[in-house]
Design brief:
By secondary structure, the protein is an alpha+beta fold. The protein contains six helices and eight strands, in the order αββαααβββββαβα. A hairpin with a 2-residue loop joins strand 6 and strand 7. 36% of the residues are buried.
Length: 162
């Protein structure tokens, strides 16, 4: 079983995610400053946190969740992150959203504070935004990053803002 990230590590995750702000949206990409989509942001932060990308996703279309009708994003998150109750999620944790009832979750973001997240979506660079009630109602799952190996943490993560 994976150890969930500590409060200090989660603060560092937020600081790391903020280094991605302004990265242009690019479907399937995961390169800070050059391009990413919501999953690419999550993959990039994970790789910088743990020293390796969790897994390389297969090619996917913008309508992959509807086309497959499977909780692919949730299942991948279960393989690499620690599941938690969405009500318990805090800064540095990952939220998965479903846009319609009975459809799989297909969007993700990293919480940066109470009702704020960092995410990428079509037509926008990576942004830190308020989570409006319409989005809050669409939160389907929450996850916490694993605690990284101590030899990775000090060198690769920016210091959290205090």
């Amino acid at each position: 079983m994976m150890e969930a990230a500590s409060a200090d590590t989660r603060a560092r995750i937020v600081a790391l995610a903020r280094t991605w702000l302004g990265t242009p949206y690019h479907h399937q990409a995961s390169l800070r400053g050059a391009g990413c989509d919501c999953l690419g942001l999550l993959r990039g932060v994970y790789a910088e946190l743990t020293g390796a990308e969790p897994e390389v996703p297969p090619p996917y279309t913008p309508s992959w969740a509807e086309d497959l009708d499977r909780e692919t994003l949730r299942d991948a998150a279960h393989r690499h992150l620690v599941a938690l109750d969405p009500a318990a999620a805090g800064a540095g944790d990952v939220l998965l959203f479903r846009w319609r009832d009975r459809l799989p979750a297909k969007h993700c973001g990293i919480l940066s504070g109470t009702s704020h997240m960092i995410h990428a979506y079509d037509g926008h660079a990576v942004v830190e935004t308020w989570i409006p009630p319409a989005w809050s109602r669409r939160i389907a799952y929450a996850f916490r990053f694993p605690e990284p190996s101590p030899d990775i943490l000090p060198e690769t993560l920016p210091e959290p803002q205090r």
